[in-house]
Design goal:
Length: 164
């Protein structure tokens, strides 16, 4: 079974989906089924159950929102992807709160050439575990905020929260 919890945040509800304590999806939506349908068919076959408390992952979100910006770093996550995408997601997790990188820098941190910025952008677009895999910390080298699956205002809020 995939367990889900919906947490209130200053920027709207955050749905967390976990399997045996490991986050498999998270996103700024009041409806966990919107995240559930993005999971692999194998995980979807387990079913979805909304629970009152996921325990440690929910506590980490509360701590992050209260100012412990490293709290999400210790929560185990797992999402599908090629070895390249997994390297990029791991490199994302290593971008510290309060800092940002460009897509080219993210590719370089993942051991890929800077020319792999497009692959880095794709990894961010396909990220199922925001903000635990903090794709909001990646900005275009041309300036601005770029896109964000949950909307630029959410990305801006997360970056402002982490900068304070």
């Amino acid at each position: 079974m995939i367990d889900a919890q919906i947490l209130p945040t200053p920027i709207g509800p955050l749905s967390l989906l976990a399997r045996e304590g490991v986050i498999v999806a998270a996103g700024f939506t009041p409806d966990p089924s919107q995240m559930f349908v993005r999971l692999s068919p194998q995980l979807q076959a387990l079913g979805l159950d909304v629970v009152e408390d996921l325990g440690a992952p929910a506590e980490a979100v509360r701590a992050y929102l209260a100012g412990d910006l490293d709290a999400l770093d210790e929560v185990p996550v797992e999402q599908p992807g090629s070895p390249t995408r997994r390297r990029l997601h791991q490199a994302l997790r290593e971008v510290k709160a309060g800092t940002t990188v460009s897509y080219a820098e993210l590719a370089e941190r993942a051991g890929m050439p800077r020319t792999a910025a497009r692959a880095a952008g794709s990894a961010c677009a396909q990220n199922l575990i925001a903000p635990f895999v903090p794709c909001h910390r990646v900005l275009p080298s041309t300036g601005g905020f770029g896109g964000y699956y949950y909307g630029v205002p959410v990305k801006e809020w997360l970056l402002e929260h982490e900068a304070s």
